[in-house]
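Obj.: predict assembly geometry.
Materials: sequence records (below).
Method: joint structure prediction, all chains together.
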Amino acid sequence: MSMPSTNSASAASAQLPPPPKARPWSKSRILGHVLMALWIVAGGYLVYYLSINIASPFFQKYWPEYVDGFLVTIQIVGWSLLIGAGLSIPIAIARSSRNPILNGLSYAYVYFFRGTPLLAQTFLIYYGAGSFRDALTDIGLWWFFRDAIYCVIFAFSLNTSAYQAEILRGAIENVPKGQWEGGRALGLSRPVIFFRIILPQALMVALRPYGNEIILMIKGSAIAAIVTIYDIMGETRRAYSRSYDFQAYIWAAVLYLFLVETLRRIWDRLEARLTRHLKR
Amino acid sequence: MNEALTLLSFGDAGWGDEIARGVLVTVSLAVATLPFGLALGFVLALAKKSDDPSLRLAANIYTTIFRGLPELLTLFLVYFGVQIAIQQGLRLIGVEAYVEVNSFVAGMVALALVFSSYASEAFLSAFRGIPQGQYEGGYSLGLSHGKTMRLVILPQLIRLALPALGNLWLILLKDTALISVVGLSDLVRQSGIAARVTKEPFLFFGIACLIYLALAMISSVGLSRIEHWSKRGETER
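Observations (raw structure tokens):
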């Protein structure tokens, strides 16, 4: 009697997966749960803090200014990235040219803008332009350098163009030479090879660093606040200096995190789309 | 030209000594931040590669926050936040006082938070580059977990993580410029003062940029030396 029952039991256990092992309360698991509990408490408190403050006079008074600041940040970042992208193409071409003068000049440009702080570059352009006031007035460019927002966009564009040139150069050099030769063997013209064969492959490599560069630019744009621009950071500083209410900085943190995380998620989608043929 | 040299000379007439002091503050801030950032980054990387999902998530939340916030905002959050927290703490025990946080310390904390979240990614990818067999080899020689980590894994980890950490060091050096905003007399602030007083902003901010470039170049030389040193086991081949 007992034999068939054990047989059937073993047969049943062969079909069913074994029950998951009870995970022991190891040190790392306890630590992980404690830390997560802390994060959850902190996050819960943050949500509570923000929700009770939505009715506060601070929020009622300053939220329109935060919206303005948000738009200014987006404009600065958007224009700088666009102008920087335009500038990066000739720089990348010069960087990969065999002409020693072109190569050296573009190398120095890239090295300078990647090796010095964005803050110092912004100061150099915004305050430094004052040293050439007469000359700039003579050639009719003083109106440009007098205005902080133009200076900031100018400085950020130069900065990001150096980074973008390196990304572009790295990505295009990453595409094997055989891809050009293959295109030529099919009788395609150079622009067609570049735009239909090389660029899509280069973009796949460049996408991640481009995304990182955009995020760096959003974070870096907070520097504009120091030269009197009222972007998110500038509005925050103004609101704090008027109210001495620390929630000014909390709202700014929420805004920036929201901006960066949204972008990162869009970028993940984009990357998944561009590399969909590699998925198994 | 001569005028510029006078302005940059050391002593009463020039700003050379003030700027040199600024350079010293900039470098010491970066150097003081580095060990804390590295240690915290290493611990975070250990948490991120742990088997336990809750520990991984906790570490990932940390990096998401400090990589997503602008460095300048992190600095203000630390600088004003700690100030307010201490004041409220004092108020609880009945002391009404105005507390000012040292801007050097606030800068160190803020930069260490940012640096550690990036460094943890560098360490994590270095950990992924070390095959499981290295751990097993250590254990089979009878080494304890701690000794395997110290004698077998860490030397390889440093070699693998060095290029990324070198980049992070250069970024840290540049990020110290932000601390001038909360009043630390670093290179940027000292040049700013000199620029305002002498009305030669282009000269002084240009000099500041060149000094940052020089610091970056010196760092690159040092880093390539260290990298060479870390690869001394491979040079014979």
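Conclusions so far: Chain B has one domain: 2-231.
To do: check interface contacts against the pulldown list.
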